């Protein structure tokens, strides 16, 4: 168990910068997830923590030690790999005990620890199997057993579930959380799957293009994304974005307007902004009462329905807002995704009115992508009910 | 049965069958079923290669067992297997074989160790100049060994560095053997080591090995077919080598002369006659270790040379 600190960690290759001045302070016993799209630098960051890649700049601390220049074996870490990476020429016992044998533990101690670890991952009685005689899930458990048997200070997990089938993945997710509760070891987990990140971690670090975007609890990232990237990356299906302008009376786009007092937004009216709203914060007229603070109604046509069982995703085509006087050349913003309850009677082709929940609207600065405001108040000055709060 | 086509009166009894020899009938059937022709071609080709490769061995055997007094024939009229014992009686042939095996094994060990390191570097690391360097290493194996002989001979006989005399020692052969046969091993091992997934090496390093430890504990064992191939090929190449084997010693068994020296010694065994028989017997004995090795390692060599793919 140890605290892990990354200070200004940078990794430059000849022509690209994979990781740019990464600062992370991971608390002892915390389960944190590095998440981001492919090539965002999350695996490179993990490799630098592991010591498999050395940073061009910056320091890595594990516990009280500066481990920046130490080889992986001396860092007190263990790692679970995406391709599982069990040694194919060794049986399960030899795989699990590999690190212990290298460190010259007593035979009895090795046996005891291997039995314990196999017990934790529920693989007792499999110790003499070879890796190729086991299923993917079993192999991943053995890989986890190999990682925990040395009782490391930090676990690193590099997309350990990516090669498993969907059902097993969900199951192993729960197992990993149980394992974390049991061992109380610091876990650093890398994934590109935001659902995995949301469900398992104490905090998630969202990365994009080598830079840290936000490092916060999953629900904070979900409800108060720091910028447009985080807002779009976290949550499935993704947040709706509409390009428009900040006006004196609120937000105006080609398809709809939302009125709210603009004093608190922090930028002057007339600036281009992007409005973001999650599918579950769009309401059809019938269930408008569920919204904390519905906006003015928006004309829309039901384009496609996607019933998921517990909810229905409704793809809406937005009608042109003639009053705003803006041209029809805005094409990416013509749609809105709404999620409704499964007993909804909507049909494809229906013309309906929808509204957004003011309290759940996010505004992003078009120039910087930074979030300006999470949730806006009603225009009438009744700002007391505003559940939203300002960013920063 | 009696002849159907003619009767004593000269008339035709039945519709005459076409007169066909066995060859024509075979051709006719082959036209109906081309597979027959392909199979026949296969047997002909196989037979040809078997005869051309095995006949020299057969004749070597004939040469060995034909008594000196008897005339040389394709199928010998008399046999004398005692000649195989004479090989050991007349000279210290065992010592020559021992020398050959020691030279081959030592060279193989050195080559495998060094080419493992080189194979790791060329197969798993990215660095500027990797390809040109690899090509340079390979190019060395195409040089004629004779080109190295004179400078090496001068060096090993102590004419370059005073006091450094390797002539008549194993070093005089093992050093040139190692450098000549190493490039092939480096090439084979580079291919194999390059195929081992990075994750396995990373896992070994995280678990507690150094890079070198990961190479010998994980990468080499997983590349066993490749290592075996490189090892066997090196062993056979050294065992069969003639040039340096003959020139880097004076042919005496106590001076580490390998089998070549022994065979040449056998040539001088009969003082005034040509002793083909005993030389042939010596050659057959010399082939035995390699033959055994090839039979034992054949599967690994074949899988090593052709496949080499490794599942994760």
TrEMBL record, chain A:
Nucleotide-binding keyword on record: yes
Membrane topology, record value: Peripheral membrane protein
InterPro entries: AAA+_ATPase, ABC_transporter-like_ATP-bd, ABC_transporter-like_CS, ABC_transpr_MalK-like, ABC_transpr_MalK/UgpC-like, Mo/tungstate-bd_C_term_dom, NA-bd_OB-fold, OB_MalK-like
Subcellular location: Cell membrane
Cited SMART domains: AAA
Keywords: ATP-binding, Nucleotide-binding, Transport
A GO BP annotation: carbohydrate transport
Catalytic activity annotation: D-xylose(out) + ATP + H2O = D-xylose(in) + ADP + phosphate + H(+); L-arabinose(out) + ATP + H2O = L-arabinose(in) + ADP + phosphate + H(+)
Family: Belongs to the ABC transporter superfamily. Carbohydrate uptake transporter-1 (CUT1) (TC 3.A.1.1) family.
Physiological role: Part of the ABC transporter complex XacGHIJK involved in the uptake of xylose and arabinose. Responsible for energy coupling to the transport system.
Pfam families, per the entry: ABC_tran (PF00005), OB_MalK (PF17912)
EC supergroup of this enzyme: translocase
Name the record gives this protein: ABC-type D-xylose/L-arabinose transporter
Gene Ontology annotations for the cellular component aspect, listed alphabetically: ATP-binding cassette (ABC) transporter complex, substrate-binding subunit-containing
GO molecular function, one term: ATP hydrolysis activity
Record's subunit section: The complex is composed of two ATP-binding proteins (XacJ and XacK), two transmembrane proteins (XacH and XacI) and a solute-binding protein (XacG).
Organism expressing this protein natively: Halobaculum gomorrense
Automatic annotation (TrEMBL), chain B:
Keyword terms: Cell membrane, Membrane, Transmembrane, Transmembrane helix, Transport
Transmembrane segments: 40-65, 96-121, 133-153, 173-193, 214-239, 274-296
Compartments it resides in: Cell membrane
Membrane topology: Multi-pass membrane protein
Annotated Pfam families: BPD_transp_1
Predominant localisation class: membrane
Domain of life: Archaea
Xref: InterPro entries: MetI-like, MetI-like_sf
Biological process annotations from GO: transmembrane transport
Entries under CDD domains matching the protein: TM_PBP2 (cd06261)
A GO cellular-component term linked to this record: plasma membrane
Domain ABC transmembrane type-1 as annotated: residue spans: 97-297
Homology family: Belongs to the binding-protein-dependent transport system permease family.
Protein name: Carbohydrate ABC transporter membrane protein 2, CUT1 family
Species of provenance: Halobaculum gomorrense
């Amino acid at each position: 168990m140890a605290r892990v600190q990354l200070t200004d960690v940078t990794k430059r290759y000849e022509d690209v910068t994979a990781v740019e001045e990464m600062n992370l302070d991971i608390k002892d016993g915390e389960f944190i997830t590095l998440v981001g799209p492919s090539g965002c630098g999350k695996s490179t960051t993990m490799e630098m923590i592991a010591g498999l890649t050395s940073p061009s700049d910056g320091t890595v601390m594990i516990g009280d030690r500066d481990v920046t220049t130490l080889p992986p074996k001396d860092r007190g870490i263990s790692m679970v790999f995406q391709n599982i990476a069990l040694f194919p020429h060794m049986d399960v016992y030899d795989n699990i005990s590999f690190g212990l044998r290298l460190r010259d533990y007593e035979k009895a101690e090795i046996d005891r620890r291997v039995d314990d670890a196999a017990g934790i991952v529920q693989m007792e009685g499999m110790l003499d199997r070879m890796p190729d005689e086991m299923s993917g899930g079993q192999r991943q458990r053995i890989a986890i057993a190999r990682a925990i048997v040395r009782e490391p200070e930090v676990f690193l997990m590099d997309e350990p579930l990516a090669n498993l089938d969907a059902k097993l993945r969900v199951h192993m997710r729960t197992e990993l959380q149980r394992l974390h509760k049991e061992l109380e070891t610091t876990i650093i987990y890398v994934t590109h799957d935001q659902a995995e990140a949301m469900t398992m971690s104490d905090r998630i670090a969202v990365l994009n293009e080598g830079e840290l975007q936000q490092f916060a609890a999953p629900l904070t990232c979900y409800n108060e994304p720091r910028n447009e990237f985080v807002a779009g990356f976290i949550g499935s299906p993704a947040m709706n974005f509409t390009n428009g302008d900040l006006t004196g009376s609120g937000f105006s786009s080609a398809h709809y307007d939302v009125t709210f007092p603009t004093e608190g937004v922090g930028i002057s009216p007339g600036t281009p902004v992007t409005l973001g709203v999650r599918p579950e914060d769009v309401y059809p007229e019938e269930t408008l009462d569920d919204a904390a603070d519905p906006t003015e109604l928006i004309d829309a046509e039901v384009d496609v329905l996607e019933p998921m069982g517990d909810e229905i995703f409704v793809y809406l085509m937005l009608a042109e807002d003639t009053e705003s006087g803006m041209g029809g050349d805005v094409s990416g913003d013509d749609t809105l995704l709404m999620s409704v309850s499964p007993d909804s009677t909507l049909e494809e082709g229906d013309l309906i009115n929808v509204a957004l929940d003011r309290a759940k609207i996010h505004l992003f600065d078009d120039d910087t992508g930074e979030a300006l405001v999470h949730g806006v108040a009603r225009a009438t000055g009744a700002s007391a009910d505003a559940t939203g709060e300002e960013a920063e | 049965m009696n002849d159907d086509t003619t009767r004593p009166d000269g008339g035709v009894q039945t519709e005459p069958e076409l007169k066909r020899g066995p060859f024509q009938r075979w051709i006719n059937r082959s036209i109906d079923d081309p597979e027959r022709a392909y199979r026949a071609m296969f047997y002909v080709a196989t037979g040809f290669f078997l005869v051309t490769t095995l006949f020299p061995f057969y004749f070597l055997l004939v040469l060995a067992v034909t008594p000196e007094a008897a005339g040389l024939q394709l199928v010998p009229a008399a046999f004398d297997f005692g000649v195989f014992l004479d090989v050991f009686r007349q000279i210290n042939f065992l010592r020559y074989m021992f020398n050959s095996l020691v030279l081959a094994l030592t060279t193989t060990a050195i080559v495998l160790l060094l080419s493992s390191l080189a194979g790791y570097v060329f197969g798993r690391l990215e660095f500027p100049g990797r390809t040109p360097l690899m090509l340079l290493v390979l190019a060395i194996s195409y040089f004629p060994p004779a080109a190295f002989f004179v400078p090496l001979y001068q060096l090993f006989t102590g004419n370059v560095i005073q006091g450094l005399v390797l002539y008549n020692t194993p070093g005089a052969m093992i050093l040139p053997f190692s450098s000549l046969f190493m490039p092939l091993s480096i090439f084979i091992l580079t291919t194999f080591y390059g195929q081992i997934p990075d994750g396995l090496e990373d896992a070994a390093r995280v678990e507690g090995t150094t890079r070198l430890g990961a190479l010998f504990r994980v990468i080499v064992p997983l590349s066993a077919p490749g290592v075996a191939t490189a090892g066997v090929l090196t062993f056979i190449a050294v065992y069969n080598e003639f040039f340096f084997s003959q020139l880097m010693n004076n042919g005496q068994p106590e001076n580490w002369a390998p089998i070549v020296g022994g065979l040449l010694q056998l040539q001088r065994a009969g003082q005034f006659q040509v002793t083909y028989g005993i030389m042939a017997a010596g050659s057959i004995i010399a082939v035995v270790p390699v033959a055994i090795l090839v039979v034992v390692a054949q599967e690994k060599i074949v899988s090593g040379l052709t496949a080499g793919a490794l599942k994760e």
